[in-house]
From TrEMBL:
UniProt-listed CDD domains: DPCK
Protein name (record): Dephospho-CoA kinase
Gene behind the chain: coaE
Binding-site positions, ATP: A11, S12, G13, K14, T15, L16
Record organism: Granulosicoccus antarcticus IMCC3135
Keyword Cytoplasm: yes
Length: 202
């Protein structure tokens, strides 16, 4: 099985691209989904966060209030470091289990979407890395609309991630998502064909 790491900065269009891959039959593992799983009510991940940050980060139903937590960690870098050190090992362990399951099922290739692939140093896990690329100004514009963030918050989020140049430096393949959805879909289809063919000849 070909393991493809897919990454891109926040608001670059990872969901759109993974949805296109999925529609073509690709098996998708999404780090954002795994990140929600490791902080479900009663999980060791959520218990560790509550013990550190206090129950103020919880909603009334006991689920994680992501907005409240986001305000804390982006205001205080050391708190973000604690969050990363707590959750990233849990996510990596769970992703390893899902990748092993995909191998057993026998999928030709699997896409593992990892927003912080560069930041967490996971390049060596993958046979190919595809980067979704958009200009920083477009990221900022999309982020302000999508999350109703202030410009200060949005810029802080962008500054906390790897730069566009750092992501492009590790890319085997690039999807330009600054244009139309139709153009993006054409690029995804071409990569799907490439990955499927690569797998059948190795």
């Amino acid at each position: 099985m070909l393991l493809v790491g897919l990454t891109g900065g926040i608001a670059s269009g990872k969901t759109l691209v993974t949805d296109y891959f999925k529609s073509l039959g690709a098996w998708i593992i999404d780090a954002d989904v795994l990140a929600r799983e490791v902080v479900e009510p009663g999980s060791p991940g959520l218990n560790a966060l509550v013990a550190h940050f206090s129950p103020d980060i919880l909603n009334a139903d006991g689920t994680l209030n992501r907005t409240a937590l986001r305000h804390i960690v982006f205001a205080t870098p050391s708190e973000r470091e604690f969050l990363d050190q707590t959750l990233h090992p849990l996510i990596r362990q769970l992703s390893g289990e899902r990748i092993a399951a995909a191998r057993q099922i026998g999928h030709p290739y699997t896409i593992y979407a990892v927003p912080l692939l560069v930041e967490t140093g996971q390049q060596e896990r993958f046979d190919r890395i595809v980067v979704i690329d958009v200009p920083k100004a477009l990221q900022l514009q999309r982020l302000l609309v999508r999350d109703d963030s202030t410009e200060v918050e949005a810029n802080a989020i962008l500054a906390s991630q790897a730069s566009r140049e750092q992501r492009l430096a590790i890319a085997n393949d690039i999807i330009d998502n600054a244009g139309s959805k139709a153009d993006t879909r054409l690029q995804v289809t071409a990569l799907h064909d490439q990955y499927s063919q690569y797998q059948t000849t190795t």
